[in-house]
Amino acid sequence: MGMNLKVMASEECKILQNGVCNDSIVSYVDSSEAVSEVKCQIGMTAINDVEVSVLGEEAFHTIIMVDNSLSVTGENAKKITEFLEQYVTNKKENEYISIATFGEDIQFISQKTQGKESLLEAVKSIESNNQDTYLTDVLYELLDDISLDEYTRFLIITDGVDNKQIGITKEELIEKLRKSTHPIYAIGHIYKNNEAQLENFFALSRLTGGKEFLLDDVNEMDSIIAEINDVSNVVKIKAEIPQTLMDGSEKSVLFSIMHENNTSELVAEIRLPFSTREEAEPVVEEVVQESVEEEL
Q1: What pTM did the predictor assign?
Q2: Are residues 214 and 47 in contact, defined by beta-carbon separation less than 8 angstroms?
Q3: Which DSSP letter does residue 136 get?
């Protein structure tokens, strides 16, 4: 169950991921300013139990998706391999990585792995195939399989977003990403006249609070790896949902995020869970009426 981001009072503060886990709203927010306190309100109800913490040493998951179609030219293929090797070598200690190739479907080479040697072997095993690439369909289906109990982000390398004639449209994918936000770090590359496809691709990163890079303009990998690796501004917000609000309805949620000199407000729509608490059965007192026999 996710939130649909509606308003963002400050571009310096944005929701990266959100969902409902174990009867709590769990959101990850990117804030360029230190967060001193967070207040949460569901509809007209203020939530008293709100926890705030930095991502810090908490484990998080990066899903790397590599377009391995023949549209990846020789020079760019070398750059992609170089980038992936450097990224894995410089990964965070608390970062788990999945590596997958995709065309019409997705194939995972490595799933939620922490060891650098295993990940480097996965990178070396990537081969190009003569296939069509449909990121829209693949990503749409993958969003349903992601656990919301940890911070999960995408790092996608492709030459753009195309739709199948019969398949998920980019509008449908955008709507799903609004409701189930995960940051997308988009690394695009030029292939023939793919300006429109790249524009659609980079729009996904802006929608989800990620970042975009054009591989053809990159000479040194260190700078973009440093940008992607920087999770120092990621703040986790956990707000317990009162049992009285758990009715399965959709409600507006307001986060008031307080910094030293200002407050950022993020508004979202969320579908509340149903309460799992068993209601006590009402106690029925049995009333015994004595029968009085009248004397004749």
Answers
A1: 0.86
A2: no
A3: H
